[in-house]
C-alpha cells in the first residue's frame, strides 16, 4: 500500500473571510480562494477557515469543506449538536449546492449530466481518478449560462463557457474531475487540465465558486437559501 505524502505548502492568503449570516447556532461565510478549509498536518499550513473562525466562535466546527482554490459559501456549526444535525442533512443529500464555474472551450450542449464513479489512488495523490470498478458513484449536472471569448493580454481569444454546476453527490474533486471528463476542464484547475490550453497557464485562480446553498436550519427548521454571486 502506497504512503500518501503531502508536500503542499499553502501560500499566504491575505483575503478576509466574509461573515454573511450568523446566529447562536451557525455561521454562513464566503471563503476566499487560496485558503484551506482545515489546517493541514504540516505546521506551515496552519492558516485555514477553521483556524480563523475558532478565534471568533470558540467550539465551532466545519460541516463540509471547499477545495483550497474554490471560493464561496460554507456553513459552520457553532456546537457539536448543530454539527451533527447539519452533517445528517449532508449525508442524506438533503442539502443542495450550486457552483459557478468557467470552463475551457465552448460546450456543445446547453445542459447535461456527468455520471462517472470517482476513486482515490494513493499513488496519484492528490489526484482522484475516474474508475467504474473501484470508484464511488458520482453524479453532477451542468447548465450553460453563456459562451464567450476572453481577449487576453497578447490579443489572443480564449473560448470559455460560464456554467452552473450542481453536484448530486459529494466526492472529493468531483466537479473538477467531472468537467475534465466532459472535455472542458475548469479554467485555472492545475490538477485536471485547466492550465494546459495556450493562455490558460496565467489564470490567477481556480474559476470555481460555491454560489448557492440550500438547507434547513437545524433549530428553526426554516429553509435557508443563501446566495453569493461569483467574483469572476
TrEMBL record:
Domain Pseudouridine synthase RsuA/RluA-like span(s) in chain numbering: 25-181
Pfam family, one: PseudoU_synth_2
Species assigned in the record: Citrobacter braakii
SUPFAM superfamilies the record matches: Pseudouridine synthase (SSF55120)
InterPro entries: PsdUridine_synth_cat_dom_sf (IPR020103), PsdUridine_synth_RluA-like_CS (IPR006224), PsdUridine_synth_RsuA/RluA (IPR006145), RluA_PseudoU_synthase (IPR050188)
UniProt xrefs under CDD domains: PseudoU_synth_RluA_like
Protein name, as recorded: RluA family pseudouridine synthase
